[in-house]
């Protein structure tokens, strides 16, 4: 080849190389979805090991140091080993599922046979359950990588504080609450410690932390997802739900964890009602022709929240939705907290004892023994534990709440809860609406030192309607307050309407794009992924 031809060939090669370089785009770590990660895995520009290491490094930088969020209780020492195994398996056999090699976190009331499950309590410190929870088995079978077990309100009730993990901080504002009880999952996902995570919701515990931390979340229909292997708070209300920075990732997680479990009788109601792939429901134009009912009963408490809600309604109108106002009966708003507590308190006493019986002989076996053990914890421990008088005082009230045979319990169980379901179904049908919308929290995130909300939720909050009815509720970031605090919007629908709620949430998310990485956990050098 003559010199001129060689130079021409070299020039073409350089151009092609530069073109390829510029064609390869990058996405910030916090903005990447599970679909983006899978595309990068397939292209070979990312491995599960590298992605897992990125998240572990962020946990080290922001949870253990820096702002010290205290969102994590236990880092999985085998996370990188699992990620490497998933990478090797991908090369030889291909991916098991869309969650193959995807790093996730689990609320520390969900059993893991290889990591402690403590409920955030010093009384269960170091407790290794006999086996994985059903949802954990499904996640492992799908190839997910468990990065950490995360902090929570102790025994999934009360403020975002536990005697074992301490006070969880909101990465958007360290003086504000990340909400409970899944506060560790909410803060972890917002701060990009993993791609997604699981929380549990008994009275708003997925939804509160989702809105307070500015992420997406789903309170699932009772019976869609198993609770076997989850420390119970009240099985009449307990649900497990996915939380993530994007609605797509919520749908991807739900696709794996939904399904019938013989060990959880409630899932019989979900027989034939789950969907193999919830991501197929996601359409950017899903709001076109939708009818959304706005429950204005939960406005009027915070001007910033009200403004964001009105802006959200206008955004939905622009996407082709029809907005109609709906009103809940006053008696329901006034009574729902009492209904909730009448079920929640006495069930915890019985059901926590059933769970404790599965643990080793050194752990308490009844609520009375939990209280007795708590009274011996009067100072911080070297391992980071500390007294939690607010939650422990609530245990005393729970212990005195009566039995499951008392009329206060049976009347609400047999008559009150069906009445709530009938009213909500009636509103949805009479107004011909796809979902009821309202602010997930009627006020912006409160300060960490603010008095706790009354048990069961204030009458001015809609948070426990989904629990009383067993209905699903989708939470999506909607905007920010004057102080740059996240505000979320909820979409409540009838039983097993998750595909429709996810579609509505996705269309709203894509139209508004209100999520932001928290200011206290910024991206660091190299925290992006190359995608095709």
Q: How would you describe this structure to a colleague?
A:
This protein has 532 residues and is α/β, with parallel strands linked by helices. The protein has a single domain (25-531), classed as Amidase signature (AS) domain (Amidase signature (AS) enzymes, Alpha-Beta Complex), CATH 3.90.1300. It is 38% helix and 14% strand. The protein contains 15 helices and 15 strands. The protein has helices at 3-23, 34-43, 48-62, 79-93, 134-141, 183-190, 207-213, 247-257, 303-318, 330-356, 367-374, 389-399, 407-430, 465-469, 498-512, and strands at 25-28, 72-75, 103-107, 145-150, 161-162, 166-167, 196-201, 216-219, 239-244, 291-295, 322-326, 435-439, 473-480, 486-492, 528-531. It has an eleven-stranded mixed beta sheet, with helices on both faces. The chain has a two-stranded antiparallel sheet with strand order 1-15. A two-stranded antiparallel ribbon has the order 5-6. Helix 9 links the parallel strand 10 and strand 11. Helix 3 runs antiparallel to helix 4 (79-93), helix 10 crosses helix 13 and helix 11 (367-374) packs antiparallel against helix 12. The chain is globular, with a radius of gyration of 23 Å.
